[in-house]
Specification:
alpha/beta; inorganic pyrophosphatase (n-terminal core); Diaminopimelate Epimerase, Chain A, domain 1; 4 domains; 41% helix
Length: 575
């Protein structure tokens, strides 16, 4: 069971509604997103790409642009070092295209997950030295690569770091001591003294802003079409890297979705086509769960450079060939994920010890280490507990963890750091390596140290407001469109109501996974609303028929059929 709540944040909703030409309902929902100031509300409702934050405010941005511009002018070889996930691939594409269009000579080195590990390493610096590289630019990594960067700088290579991850630090008697890498310029909004006001952008956005400033300095006023494409990739990476859709992130994603519908990039077009995504309905969901995973699958099961090559292709046939490869890899990844998720869930359900643990620690030696994090996330969803999945990786065991809101995973791992060869992460997720004979001790200590209560281990779901079903209208559903795009940090509005009666309950679908009904007030009101829900249709229908009174959490959806529109309630929770 989940605990239900209704948001109760206060504001003068009528005044906000009048000022911005919206309904009080919309004003309340916006307030629930903690958007309170006039400039925030205006950006949320009306933000355009030109309203995004000034990139020059980012610490070291102008210094980085000067170094890059000088390197291009001197004809230096430039090496871009990215990462193997969607943000790293998109960041690398943005920098590569931008530098080439500004007249530079650049190559990209993306790490191979199994052999290189994450980010920049010494081998990459040696490769750069052999090829005569004069400048290295990192993207979506580099902030923690101090040793590698010092090695490069000592060998005479200039280094620019562009990243968005937290700056490493150590605790001292006087507080945190941050450890910045000794690069020629470090562009990362997470730096403590960086005046850039919105810190939660992805690596792709940092890269985009660097190219934006480079084009300004180089006088590339004719590159507006390319900048539109690069902003599309930054927005694509924003969703793929699960950034919150707030502030300028929301503008970038809104713009990216619009641009993706008509993009001239062969790779992006082919990816959309092979996944059979309806461009007219394109949303962050499609980026996060259909298109983006194809990019990540190359980094998990093959080489991330294939995704980059797809975006760089200049003709449809070659881009389509790679897009089909990516789809096949992602299908394989999904099958592997499903198999090992079922295995992990069955292990927990079949073991008295594991099922009673508050922190799950499951060892799947045969599981491919690249999907351990996905399986850990599925395990967390199934049981709403912090979850670690460990796999056999050569002489070591490697693992990934995914947490719940009340559990600081990184802080708890520090208490067991003597068991790890390496570990890292943050509150919500972590990675580790260790020896096999330490697994049982890790599980025991994580649970012995755990202070989670039953309330902590109960998922919470919050509605924006109570809404009688009689008040639902097509006009309201259409007004809610102004709040899109939805995603992390800007969820689709959720409404609640109680004392309802479900009538005319029917099960549809090839797999009988769609339930339709009419919802009315249980007190006998005449007005009602069409409703729908998804899942095990026969079980859900039986459950709904057994209830005299029904409480629901629901979203609104517009059903378009044969040229007509009809609003439906989409049931998300009920009891």
């Amino acid at each position: 069971m989940k605990n239900w709540y209704v948001a109760n944040k206060k504001a003068d909703f009528n005044t906000i509604a009048l000022k911005y030409g919206i309904s009080p309902i919309l004003a309340r929902i916006i307030r629930n997103r903690d958007i309170t100031e006039d400039d925030q509300i205006d950006m949320y409702l009306n933000g355009r790409p030109e309203d995004m934050r000034d990139p020059h405010l980012m610490k070291d941005m102008d210094k980085a642009v000067s170094i890059l511009y000088k390197a291009i002018g001197e004809g230096k070889r430039i090496l871009i070092i990215g990462d193997y996930d969607i943000d790293g691939v998109c960041s690398s594409y943005i920098l590569l295209k931008g530098i080439m269009e500004a007249g530079g000579t650049a190559d990209v080195r993306l790490p191979e997950r199994m052999t290189d590990g994450y980010g920049m390493n010494m081998g990459m610096v040696d490769e750069a030295l052999k090829s005569g590289t004069g400048l290295i630019i990192t993207c979506d990594n580099g902030i923690s690569a101090s040793e590698e960067i010092r090695y490069a700088v000592d060998k005479g290579i200039d280094v620019i770091v562009t990243d968005h991850h937290e700056v490493p630090y150590e605790e001292t008697d006087t507080g945190k001591k941050y450890k910045l890498p000794p690069a020629n310029a470090v562009v990362d909004p997470k730096q403590d003294d960086c005046p850039y006001l919105f810190k939660e952008i992805c690596g792709g956005m940092v890269a985009y802003k660097l190219i934006q400033c480079l084009f300004e300095k180089a006088g590339c006023s004719d590159k507006k079409e390319l900048l539109r494409e690069l902003l599309m990739f930054a927005g694509f990476a924003t969703v793929g890297d699960v950034m919150e859709l707030r502030d300028e992130n929301r503008i970038a994603v809104k713009y990216a979705i619009k641009e993706m519908k008509t993009t001239k990039n062969f790779g992006m077009n082919c990816l959309i086509d092979v996944q059979k995504v309806d461009r007219s309905r394109l949303s962050p969901y499609h980026i996060g769960f259909i298109l983006g995973p194809c990019i990540n699958a190359t980094g998990r099961l093959d080489s991330p450079k294939r995704a980059l090559e797809m975006f760089m292709k200049g003709n449809h046939e070659e881009a389509l060939s790679i897009a089909l490869e990516l789809k096949d890899l992602n299908d394989k990844r999904k099958d592997m994920t499903d198999h090992y998720t079922k295995l992990a869930v069955d292990m927990v359900n079949g073991s008295g010890e594991l099922s009673s643990d508050r922190v799950l620690c499951v060892y799947l030696p045969e599981c491919h280490e690249s999907i351990a994090g996905i399986v850990a996330g599925k395990l967390r969803e199934a049981f709403y507990k912090p979850s670690f999945v460990l796999t056999k990786g050569g002489e070591e065991v490697k693992g990934s963890g995914r947490s719940i809101e009340a559990y600081d995973m990184h802080a708890e791992m520090i208490k067991c750091e003597d068991l790890f060869i390496k570990f890292g992460g943050h509150k919500a997720a972590a990675g580790l390596s260790m020896y096999e004979d330490k697994i049982d001790e890790l599980r025991q200590r994580l649970n012995a140290n755990c202070t989670l209560t039953e309330d902590d281990l109960t998922e919470k779901i919050t509605a924006d407001m109570r809404m009688p079903v009689e008040y639902v209208s097509l006009g309201l559903a259409r007004e809610l469109d102004r709040l899109e795009p939805y995603g992390n940090g800007n969820r689709k509005p959720m409404f609640a109501e109680k004392d309802l009666a479900a009538e005319d309950i029917r099960v549809f679908g090839k797999n009988r996974n769609v339930v339709k009904m009419k919802l009315k007030s249980a007190n006998g009101g005449n007005a009602g609303a069409d409703a729908i829900c998804f899942g095990d249709g026969d079980r859900i229908a039986e459950e709904l028929r057994s209830k005299d009174k029904l409480s629901i959490m629901y979203e609104l959806s517009v059903n378009e059929y044969m040229g007509t529109e009809r609003v439906e309630l989409v049931l998300k929770e009920w009891k």
